[in-house]
Specification:
By secondary structure, the protein is mainly α. 90% of the residues lie in helices and 0% in strands.
Length: 129
């Protein structure tokens, strides 16, 4: 089973963290949901995009959480969570699955093609002898 995208993970962390804190009245529990999703997203970003980009995206995630508080005073709580969640998820989609991941896939594909070509050459040489 494929794991969910980091956009979904970060959205679940922000919305789920807020919903958990609001429903239970326990802000620490909501923070735990936020932190767990952030840790998972960081690990995936690090694998797909490298440590530098993972750190930047994690700072954005934490910053979005922080920004939702003053924004809630202007928009309302759920509206604020929705805005920062959308921004974080979109950024994750754009920057999180980066070129590094695609480059690795392309390198693997090129290696497979080169191995097939070499096998073909080896077969031709063997047929001549």
């Amino acid at each position: 089973m494929a794991s969910p995208s980091t956009a979904i993970v970060t959205a679940a962390g922000l919305v789920g963290g807020y919903a958990t804190a609001r429903q239970t009245g326990n802000r620490q529990l909501g923070g735990a949901v936020l932190a767990a999703a952030g840790a998972l997203a960081f690990a995936r970003w690090k694998k797909d995009a490298g440590a530098g980009r993972a750190t930047a995206l994690t700072l954005l995630y934490v910053g979005a959480f922080g920004a939702s508080h003053p924004l809630a005073k202007k928009l309302g709580a759920w509206e604020s969570v929705g805005v920062v969640t959308a921004a974080t998820a979109l950024t994750s989609l754009v920057a999180g699955g980066s070129k590094a991941s695609r480059a690795k896939q392309e390198a693997k594909q090129a290696a497979k093609q080169a191995a097939k070509r070499q096998a073909g050459r080896d077969a031709k040489r063997a047929a001549k002898h």
